[in-house]
Design brief:
Layout: E1 8-11, E2 27-30, H1 36-47, H2 53-65, E3 68-71, H3 85-91, H4 98-131, E4 148-149, E5 155-156
Antiparallel strand pairs: 1-2, 2-3, 4-5
Length: about 170
């Protein structure tokens, strides 16, 4: 059994390094598969009770930053810039590579984390439906709200007009 550990390159635009040593632009390299810690962070974002979409996206961004294996950013001396959340925020603003990294991370990781989570939710919802199924009504009980008796004795689920039809 072999695992693909080849990092996935994500082009993030024009080189921003001092002296622009990367003529073909800067690159971010993501892990080919989400790490356990990253998967747990993504799951936390998906399962949290957060009502604010921005906060949920922030949690996902933190998870995705953790999946950066390498990048081409260098400092004034030509040394690699350490991969830290602060450096990622500074070097990968949304409009200059951040969107591309986030979208590629979604493509790579979200199905692996979300699919089992969604399947579990579907099973729980199905169990909940089975346990909360309404009991059949007893003989002689009142008609359900879906049908109503009309003055002429017929039953109908259509709403009857309250206006007189006489002229």
């Amino acid at each position: 059994m072999t695992f693909d550990t080849t990092p996935v390159p994500v082009p993030v635009g024009k080189c921003r390094c001092p002296g622009e040593p990367h003529g073909d632009g800067d690159m971010v390299y993501l892990h080919h598969e989400v790490s356990m810690a990253g998967g747990m962070r993504i799951k936390a974002a998906l399962t949290s009770q957060i009502q604010d979409d921005i906060e949920a996206q922030t949690i996902l961004a933190r998870a995705y930053f953790g999946e950066i294996e390498a990048w081409s950013f260098t400092d004034e001396e030509g040394d690699p810039v350490p991969i830290t959340p602060d450096n990622a925020n500074r070097l990968l603003p949304w409009a200059k590579g951040g969107r591309e990294v986030a979208e590629k991370a979604d493509d790579l990781y979200i199905a692996d984390v979300a699919t089992p989570f969604i399947e579990r939710l579907k099973k729980e919802a199905k169990k909940l439906q089975l346990t909360q199924r309404p009991k059949p009504s007893a003989p002689g009980s009142m008609p359900s709200t879906a049908t109503s008796a009309t003055p002429n004795g017929r039953t109908s689920s259509a709403r009857t007009s309250t206006r007189s039809r006489r002229k």
